[in-house]
Amino acid sequence: MTYKGKQIIFSDLDSTLLRNNHYFSKATKQVVKDLYKKGVFLIPVTARSTFDVITQAKRLGIDKIGGIAAANNGSQIYDFKNKTWIVNEYLNNETVKIMFEEFFGKHKAKIHFYADDTTYVFNEGKMSLYWAQMMGTDYIAAHSFEEIKHKISHATIVLKKGTPTDEAKSMLKFIQDNFSEKNDVQVYTERVIEICPKGINKGSAVKNICDYLNIGEEVVKYAFGDGPNDFPMFEAVEVGVAMANAIQELKSSADDVTEFSNEEDGVARYIYKNIL
Fold first, then answer.
1. R_g of the chain computed on alpha carbons
2. 72 close to 49: Cβ distance less than 8 angstroms
3. Which residues contact 108 (CB under 8 A, 6 or more apart)?
4. pLDDT tens digits, residue range 4-32?
5. What pLDDT score does 107 carry?
6. Whole-angstrom Cα distance, residue 28 to residue 171?
7. How far apart are CA 133 and CA 151, in angstroms?
8. Residue 195: enclosing H or E segment and its boundaries?
9. pLDDT in tens, 42-98
10. 3 DSSP β-pair partners
11. Beta-ladder partners of 76
12. What residues does 138 pair with on adjacent strands?
């Protein structure tokens, strides 16, 4: 496949393309249609689960247009036109087993293990249940590694609130020493760490999609985002655009910032003004 557009756009979903109620506005749906009419792809790249991203892409009409969507920060990338997986990778079972047995019952941290349509946790929690419901995935409290019946695309480690800095640093070193050789370790804050298959992040998602579409240097790549896991995506494009509601660190590293927040159709307004 050879991409014929002059631009290509990658966008995070939560607090970026989606409003805070987790729905797309009419303006957002319309801008996607207008872009594709011009031959310009808008590709969702998100940490959300595979099942949910397929659903969100359909809500945007990307399935009918024949576009692409990336889930789990790029572990799974699907081409709707050719009905094929561009990337479909998972953590190996040994990694998942070590993580589970090292942390379960020791109160050092909680871990969320994400499968295509299931979220596994140690114990039920208000926020993890909320996000599982938002994504439409099953929600299972597992008390042994053997209870995890699905392949895991990525896992998020959240250190206990109030963990002393020295203890947090020690835990991070343990995680890097034990998991970084065969996996990708992303440190978002001193408490939140993500484990993905080796070389997988939003930046790799951009690269894999561009390689798949045979995109050359003449195509201008844009990316929209709001949070820590969007840094790799910004590094992989010519124009990284932070949302008005983004964290300050992302705004500081961005090439541009939207005038409006996700609640005010910031992405759609920026595209109409600067791209279309």
1. 18
2. yes
3. 159, 160, 171
4. 899 999 999 999 999 999 999 999 999 99
5. 67
6. 41
7. 20
8. strand 192-197
9. 999 999 999 999 999 999 999 999 999 999 999 999 999 999 999 999 999 999 999
10. none
11. 71, 88
12. 118
| Structure confidence by residue, pLDDT tens digits, 192-206 | 999 999 999 999 999
Judge contact between 119 and 137, C-beta under 8 A: yes
What distance in Å separates the CA atoms of residue 205 and residue 210, rounded to the nearest whole number? Answer: 9
- Per-residue pLDDT band at 1 (split at 50, 70, 90): low
265 Rama class: left (phi>0) / alpha (psi -120 to 50) / beta: left
HSE-CB at 16 with a 13 A cutoff on CA atoms is 29
Alpha-carbon gap, residue 30 to 32, rounded angstroms: 5
Long-range contacts of the stretch 100-105 (C-beta < 8 A, 24+): 100/142, 100/144, 100/145, 100/148, 101/145, 102/178, 103/157, 104/143, 104/144
How far apart (Å, rounded) are the C-alpha atoms in residues 11 and 62?
Answer: 13
Q: DSSP string covering 65-96, please?
A: HT-EEEEGGGTEEEETTTTEEEEE----HHHH
Which domains does the chain show, CATH number per domain?
7-89+201-274 (3.40.50.1000), 93-197 (3.30.1240.10)
Looking at every residue in the chain, the average pLDDT score rounds to 95
Taking the CB of residue 226, how many other CB atoms lie within 10 A of it?
24
